[in-house]
Structures are given as structure tokens and as C-alpha cells.
Amino acid sequence: MSSLTRMFAVLDLLEQRALALDADTICAELGYSRPTGYRYIAELVRAGLLVRVGGGAYGLGPRIIELDYAIRANDPVLAAAQPVMRALVAATGGDATLAATYGEHVVTTHHEAGPEALILSYGRGRPMPMVRGALSKCLLAWMPRARQQRLHKIHAKEIKANRLGADWPAFRAAMAQVRKDGYAVSIGELDPGLVAVAAPVHDDEGSVQAAVAVVLRLARYELLDHAQLAALVMDSARRIEHAMRTPALAAPAKKKRTKAKP
Questions:
Q1: Which residues pair with residue 234 across a beta bridge?
Q2: In what order do the strands lie in the sheet with 50-54?
Q3: What superfamily would CATH give domain 75-248?
């Protein structure tokens, strides 16, 4: 691992443990020597990513909140997706969620609540299982082959348990089918009684930037035309892509200020 990756592992540890840890515990958990671990902690404190919380312990710092605000204010995918997701909620009566992936993580980046106020286990900022749920399956399906194969080696048992393939060829075929369909469906995979239908959001070069999903109660889903619902979600993904290329469509234009007449 690079020094930067090793340093960020400190943040990952605190995120996973969801509490403050002292410097010696951090070093022991990550297998770092005291000089190396203490240096990483000091640099993270200077950057505002860690903060000392008393008793020699450290927790996640305020810079993370600042970065979260910057993402909410400036992320082009989020800006493009929000109005489209609100329209998806209005059209279906469900909730709409957006997710993205990095490394071996799938994270919900936005959630538009619907009229039924569904309680979702994986709200904004909470990592989802890599191989469960419609959003994760969508993001997996459009990954490059080499990355899919690497993730299959890591998650082979979970992939088999979730009926995505007993081996690599079967998993590859399952992902190819999702790509052919253009969307993924999950029923009760993340939350009992809830169904998600997701479609990928691509950039201009064809790479997947995110996946958007509608989440419904199973009883509501069974009353709907499933093909029409899938088409609606895929159309929402295309609209997000279009808004990403034309940012003015993603948000209302700001009114020009006019001077008051004397």
C-alpha cells in the first residue's frame, strides 16, 4: 500500500468502529509502528480529518463535514439527479436512491423520500453490501471484466449465497444479463418487504458514474406493471445523464438581480 492509502486506513478504522480510539490502539489495529502511526495521526489532525476528543483518543474531524457540504453543493451527478429523482418519487409513490462505488464500497449518495416515508437500512453515506441489492448489482454489472473478476475472488461465497453465480463464469453470465436487460431488481435483499429497481447512470465516455433506483413496498410493486416501472427507472437514468451534459437543466436558473428604481 502507498503511504496515502495507509494513512487513510486510519479513517477507515474509525469509520468501521464508529468510536474514538487512542493512538496506540490505532497503531496496534493497523499493524503500524508507533512512529509511523503517530505521524499519520498528526498529519490527519492538521488536515482536520481527525480531531482529539480527550483522554488521548481521536475521532473523525470537522473537515469531513466540510467536504460533505462541498459535495452536496457542487457534485454534478447529484445536481443532475435530484430533480429527476423527485419526479421519480412523484410518479411511483416510492422512494428514490442514488449510489456510487469506489474500491470495494458501494455508498448511497442521495435519498429522496416518498409519501410512505420508508425506513431504509442504507441511507445516505452508509456503505451497502457489494453484491446485494439492485443498486450494487447495477454497478457491478457495468464494471470492467478485470474488476469484476477481482471482486468475485473476494466475495465468491456471498455471490453464490445471493444466487449471482456458483462460479466465475456463472457470475459473469449473470452480470451480462443485467447489462442486456438494462436494469436490476432486488426483492427483500436489503430490507424485508421492500423492492428496488435500479438502472446505471453513464458519463460521456460510457463509464458508470452512479446508479439510480426506486424503492417500493412489495405490495405496491406487485400492483404495478413491472416492465413499465423498469422503463421509467431507465428513462430517469437517461435524464440524469442528459442533465449532466447540460447542467442548466439540472437546476433552475438563478434570477438576475435588478437595481431598484428610484
A1: none
A2: 21-22, 57-60, 50-54
A3: GAF domain (3.30.450.40)
Task: Supply 41's cell numbers.
Answer: 495521526
Assigned fold of 3-65: Arc Repressor Mutant, subunit A (1.10.10)
3-state secondary structure 176-219: HHHHHHCCEEEECCCCCCEEEEEEEEECCCCCEEEEEEEEEEHH
pTM for the full model? 0.77
Cell triple for residue 139?
454497478
Q: 184 with 142: CB under 8 angstroms? A: no
Partner residues linked to 211 by β-bridges = 99, 200
3-state secondary structure of 102: strand
For the chain, state the CA radius of gyration: 21
pLDDT in tens, the chain (262 residues): 678 888 988 888 887 776 789 999 999 999 999 999 999 999 999 999 998 987 789 988 888 888 877 777 778 888 899 999 999 999 999 999 999 988 778 889 999 999 988 989 888 878 888 889 999 999 999 999 999 999 999 999 999 998 999 999 999 999 999 999 999 999 999 999 999 999 999 988 888 889 999 999 999 999 999 999 999 999 999 999 999 887 554 444 344 443 434 3
The one-character DSSP state at 131 is T
Q: Where are the domains of the chain?
A: 3-65, 75-248
For residues 62 and 70, the answer to whether their CB atoms sit within 8 Å is no
Beta strands per DSSP E along the chain = 21-22, 50-54, 57-60, 95-102, 105-112, 127-128, 184-187, 194-202, 208-217
Cell of 64: 469531513
Instruction: Let me know the angle formed at the C-alpha of 178 by 139 and 245, rounded to the nearest 5 degrees.
Output: 50
